[in-house]
Write a structure and sequence with these properties.
Blueprint: E1 15-20, H1 27-41, E2 45-49, H2 61-67, E3 74-75, H3 83-90, E4 96-100, H4 111-116, E5 121-126, H5 130-148, E6 155-163, H6 169-179, E7 184-190, H7 213-226
Parallel strand pairs: 1-4, 1-5, 2-3, 2-4, 5-6, 6-7
Bound molecules: adenosine-5'-triphosphate (ATP) and magnesium ion.
Adenosine-5'-triphosphate binds next to helix 1.
């Protein structure tokens, strides 16, 4: 018997979200999981990978999706000036377009600003450290910069990632972030260094498991992006 609440109904035009944050925050790993879960739920979804890896660099969402079937198509990076139009064009009806990004960088003509101007929701993936608070401020500043120019700007939520399950720092950071006015998701992405944990999931088929951390995250993100 399933105890999960019903999934939200997304608008006809669909919704867009992006994962942003520093390199190694777990963005591509989580997004491949999210796409597999959403498609398993029957939610129309697609991925757009705006991360252009350097030579000999591996591990992008696009590369993962070409190695295994995530249940949803993942498109490679459009040119920066086409990111917004492509994201709008590719968003499925009543579904979700999820944009993956490379390591966060606030540059006026870079892909990150184009991504922020293309999505309804920016999900900042960050480790619960004081250092990372500065990055949150940089993302918030970028969103405010878009608002100031009258451009479309997304809502920002924070997803604590690479969280050590034994550490109290995530709870402390939750409190500090809320006091600073940020919205923090209930879902967390915990470190999982076991042999078959998510740390080793690249290129492996995604296991969709009801009640798992990824299942709850996929549901919470749908609820939040639907609002
Ligand atoms: N839960 C986890 N626990 C520990 N390591 C993990 C976990 N999930 C993923 N990893 C590993 O951490 C590394 C970074 O993950 P990932 O590539 O998803 O981050 P990213 O935010 O997309 O980085 P980039 O900005 O460089 O694209 C990878 O080697 C990945 O296998
Ligand atoms: Mg990545």
């Amino acid at each position: 018997m399933t105890t999960s609440r019903p999934l939200p109904v997304l608008p006809a035009a669909g919704k867009r979200l992006a994962f942003v944050g520093k390199g190694g925050a777990g963005k591509s790993t989580m997004l491949s999981q999210m796409l597999a879960h959403w498609s398993d739920f029957g939610v129309p979804c697609i991925g757009i990978d705006t991360d252009i890896p350097g030579e000999e660099e591996h591990g992008t969402l696009y590369e993962h999706a070409t190695a295994v079937d995530l249940g949803a198509p993942v498109y490679p990076a459009p040119a920066v000036h086409q990111i917004r139009n492509e994201a709008l064009r590719l968003t499925p009806e009543k579904g979700v377009a999820a944009l993956d990004t490379g390591a966060w960088e606030r540059k006026t003509d870079g892909p990150h600003m184009a991504v922020l101007s293309a999505v309804d929701l920016a999900v900042l993936c960050m480790q619960p450290t004081k250092n990372e608070l500065n990055r949150a401020a940089s993302v918030l500043g970028a969103i405010q910069q878009l608002e100031a120019t009258g451009a479309h700007a997304p809502r920002l939520v924070i997803l604590l990632s690479m969280v050590d399950p034994r550490a109290a720092s995530a709870d402390d950071m939750d409190v500090s972030l809320a006091e600073a006015g940020y919205t923090v998701l209930r879902s967390r992405f915990h470190l999982s260094n076991g042999r078959d944990g998510l740390a080793q999931s690249f290129g492996e088929p995604v296991r969709v498991r009801e009640g798992s951390e990824m299942d709850s995250m996929a549901r919470e993100l749908l609820d939040v992006v639907a609002r």
